[in-house]
Structure formats: structure tokens, C-alpha cells
Design a protein that fits this description.
It is built from 10 helices and no strands. It has 214 residues and is mainly alpha-helical. The protein is elongated. The termini are far apart. InterPro entries: Homeodomain-like_sf, HTH-type_TetR-like_transc_reg, HTH_TetR, Tet_transcr_reg_TetR-rel_C_sf, TetR_SbtR-like_C. GO terms for molecular function: DNA-binding transcription factor activity; transcription cis-regulatory region binding. Residues 194-204 have a biased composition (Basic and acidic residues).
């Protein structure tokens, strides 16, 4: 019979290696984006390539694990912050600001968080289903307070966030604060003072085109 202490030690070593890989991958993906070579992740985590592949057989496995963990943590914090803000208009603005600031700090997140709308086959963290309830709650509160034009849907806001995420990605190296200007323009367009009806959806119906409802 094997020594149970040796088995526990091996499991503890394996868990430490897994945590080291995830921490290193998160840092590298934030800096360099998802095109990074996994050998760089192994080097930073202090493990060999064999150990990395035992835990994550493919790069997509590692990417999905890192992004889902990172985004789940951030989305929870965003939800709590929204709940703690009394002014519905400010809560909506700060949510967008915080979401885009977060994406600006993490290249891989901004590359993949819009994938529900632009690249369904990409390794995608749980961006859509985690954020949709937050966005819907913020929209409902703003509507009830008369702080949002009444024909704006949850889908509109989710797509707006995805589009501004692309602005972050396009301008992060050349003009890293440009997204703030674009956000202000968009938020001004959500003001209830605008009474001209929005154009209809392309499908001409009442259902969502995809991704988010509302």
C-alpha cells in the first residue's frame, strides 16, 4: 500500500502548479493578448511544458479557464458596485466606465468578450450570461427613475458595451483614453430627452436578434 502522505503531497504539488500556471497565464494574457506563446506562460509559472499540458491539454483550455475565472470575479464586483450606487443614471455610467477600464487593462478579455456577437467559435468566457442580468437590472432601474430613454433595450446596452470594447482594442496602443470620449457620446444618446423613436431592429420583429434580450 502506498504512503497516503506521498499522495497528498503529490496532489498539493499539482494544485500549486495549476495555480501558478493560471496566475502566470492571467498576467501574460493581460499584457500580450491571447496570441501569446504558451512557452512564455510555462516559463513565468516555473513549470515545464509537460506539466502545463497535463493540466491544460490545449491552449484554448487554458485560455477559457483563465478568462472565465478572471471575468467571473470582475462581474461579481461590478454587480456589487451597481447595487451600492443609489443614482440609477450614475450606476449605469459607472458600470460602463468600469467595464471598459477593466477591458483596457486586459488584452485577452477585450479580444474575447465580444465574441458572443462577432466570433461564436472563439474560446469565450461567460461574458454574456454573467453581464446580461447586471445590464438588465441597471436598465430597469434607470427606466423607473426616468433616467433612460424608454425604447432602449438590454440588448442595445449589451451590444453598445461590445462595440465600445472594440474601440478599446483598436485604440489601446495609439490613443488609450479615446474610449472615454466615445462612451460619453453614446451615453448622451441614451438620455431620455431624445424623443425621436429608435430605428427598428433588422429582423423587423419584437424578439431579440441574439445574445441578450430586453
Amino acid at each position: 500500500m502506498g504512503d497516503p502522505r506521498a499522495g497528498r503531497a503529490r496532489r498539493a504539488d499539482a494544485e500549486r502548479n495549476r495555480r501558478a500556471i493560471i496566475e502566470a497565464a492571467n498576467a501574460v494574457l493581460a499584457e500580450q493578448g491571447s496570441a501569446v506563446d504558451v512557452r512564455e506562460i510555462a516559463r513565468r509559472s516555473g513549470v515545464g511544458m509537460g506539466t502545463l499540458y497535463r493540466h491544460f491539454p490545449t491552449k484554448d483550455d487554458l485560455l477559457r479557464t483563465v478568462l472565465e475565472g478572471e471575468f467571473t470575479t470582475w462581474a461579481g464586483a461590478a454587480h456589487r458596485a451597481a447595487d451600492e450606487t443609489d443614482d440609477p443614471r450614475r450606476a449605469l455610467r459607472e458600470f460602463f466606465e468600469n467595464a471598459l477600464e477593466y477591458r483596457a487593462r486586459h488584452r485577452a478579455v477585450v479580444e474575447h468578450c465580444g465574441s458572443a456577437w462577432t466570433a461564436p467559435a472563439a474560446p469565450e468566457p461567460a461574458c454574456t450570461h454573467l453581464l446580461t442580468p447586471v445590464i438588465d437590472e441597471l436598465r430597469t432601474r434607470a427606466l423607473a427613475a426616468g433616467a433612460l430613454r424608454p425604447d432602449v433595450t438590454t440588448e442595445d446596452l449589451a451590444l453598445l458595451l461590445a462595440a465600445l470594447g472594440q474601440v478599446v482594442q483598436m485604440t489601446t496602443d495609439t490613443c488609450p483614453r479615446m474610449w472615454r470620449r466615445q462612451l460619453r457620446i453614446c451615453l448622451d444618446g441614451l438620455d431620455p430627452a431624445h424623443t425621436e423613436p429608435l430605428p427598428r431592429r433588422s429582423d423587423g420583429g419584437d424578439g431579440a436578434c441574439g445574445g441578450a434580450g430586453g
